[in-house]
Amino acid sequence: MPQLPIPADLETLAQEILSARKYRSLGITPATVVDLLAKELLLHHNQKEAVKEVRRKLHNIVADYLGDADFASAGQQMEEAIHSGDPAQVRKVCAEILSSHASTRERLSILDEFYPRLFALIGLPSLQKGRPQTILDLACGLNPFSFPWMGLPVTTRYYAYDINQPRVDFINRFFTLLGMPPLAEAEDILVHPPQIAADVAFFFKEAHRFEQRQHGCNLAFWQALQVRWLLVSLPTSSLTGRHSLVDGHRRLVYNILAGLSSQGSQSWQVTEVLFANEIVFCIDKGGSNLRLIQKDGDCFVAKPPRNDGWDKEGNDTAQI
Ligand SMILES: C[S@@+](CC[C@H](N)C(=O)[O-])C[C@H]1O[C@@H](n2cnc3c(N)ncnc32)[C@H](O)[C@@H]1O
Fold first, then answer.
1. Of ligand 1's atoms, which has the minimum distance to the CA of residue 137?
2. Could you tell me if the CB of 136 is within 6 A of ligand 1?
3. Does the beta carbon of 204 lie inside 6 Å of ligand 1?
4. Domains and CATH numbers, the chain
5. Beta-ladder partners of 269
6. pLDDT digits (tens, 9 = 90+) for 176-232
7. Using a CB cutoff of 8 Å and minimum separation of 24, what contacts does 8-11 make?
8. Nearest residue CA, atom 17 of ligand 1?
């Protein structure tokens, strides 16, 4: 494939793409578009085609169609609820905010059990009763508004990352009202993987979308994170609820992890936690090479598969 010369001023081209009305108020960092342009210009015959593909990918990355909160009115309600000092009021407003985005709306029905089960699993010696002290919430969307369901103290250092600036500002307003440091940041985590050392990173419902943005990008991204536990979640059914995605998403995760053995790197221990509509792959990046497969209620510890990403044992465990 002939390669186009990369225009010297990708930044200007990126700004032009971001000047579209639908992106104007979102404060998307030009780094995202520069990254997309640099990759697509290598793959297309002409600049017009490359820019068209960048616009298509950007539309999916920003994913306006998943919904968002009305920050003005939700912010007002949130302020009143937090000032009331009534935890039930705070949860009620947070639940409304969570329901305004598809990813968190789907999680509402499992929220009561979601974090208790995950935190029980990742109980590390350095944590108080298995509760993380430093969290990274990667491509967070509105998930930080789940904080009241996490059972964590406001001293928790909760770093949240999203490319959508108004969303990040809204999250920081919430953190500040709760008495937490405003650690949400507008950042493209693929271009600049966070380097904060943390007990656990949440990477919820985004790994499959990262693959669509840049095939094969997940492994290097996961490796770059300075965390003991990486919790990667994926939906178990399509947005319409009609198709099961469990097998495909397991394959996706184990194919990514199979890349570790191709590199000759030590594999990571994975424990799956299956909820009604979301599957969480709890990846212990500090763990040793695991040989056993253990069943523990709905959780199981899977042996990392061979290079094809889906060996016989992996299949067996998937059917538990
Ligand atoms: C499918 S939603 C998932 C939200 C959240 N993780 C959850 O499960 O509730 C994807 C979110 O990731 C953000 N996002 C997409 N690509 C990103 C990137 N490269 N860096 C930071 N945020 C990103 C989008 O703005 C959106 O809020």
1. 6
2. no
3. yes
4. 10-62 (1.10.8), 102-318 (3.40.50.150)
5. 284
6. 999 999 999 999 999 999 999 999 999 999 999 999 999 999 999 999 999 999 999
7. 10/34, 10/37, 10/38
8. 139
What integer pLDDT is reported at residue 131 of this predicted model? 67
Helices within the chain (DSSP H only): 10-18, 21-24, 30-41, 47-62, 71-84, 87-98, 102-107, 111-121, 165-178, 207-213, 218-224, 246-262, 312-318
Instruction: Average the pLDDT over 256-277 and give the result.
Output: 93
- Run of H or E residues at 214: none
Specify the residue with its C-alpha closest to ligand 1, atom 27: 141
Which residue did the predictor score with more confidence, 203 or 122? 203
**Mutation test residue for ligand 1: of 162, 205, 236, the one with most atoms within 8 Å of CB:** 162
Angle, vertex CA 157, rays to CA 156 and CA 160, nearest 5: 125
170 neighbors 69 (Cβ within 8 angstroms): yes
Contact assessment for residue 141 and residue 103, using Cβ atoms and an 8 Å cutoff: yes
Q: In residues, how long is the chain? A: 320
Residues 6+ apart with CB under 8 A from 159: 134, 135, 136, 137, 183, 184, 185, 194, 196, 198
Sheet holding 269-274, edge to edge: 184-186, 157-162, 134-138, 198-204, 227-235, 278-284, 269-274, 299-302, 294-296
Distance of CA 145 from the midpoint of ligand 1 (Å)? 14
Average pLDDT over residues 70-89: 96
Chain mean pLDDT for the chain: 86
Contact call for residues 268 and 222 (beta carbons, < 8 A): no
Q: Tell me which residue of 255, 250, 265, 249 sits closest to 309, measured CA to CA.
A: 255
pLDDT surpasses 60 at 88: yes
**E strand or H helix that includes residue 203:** strand 198-204
pLDDT of 241 > 80? The answer is: no
Q: How many CA atoms lie within 13 A of 9 on its CB side?
A: 4
Is pLDDT above 50 for 96?
yes
What is the helix (H) or strand (E) element at residue 279, kind and residue range? strand 278-284
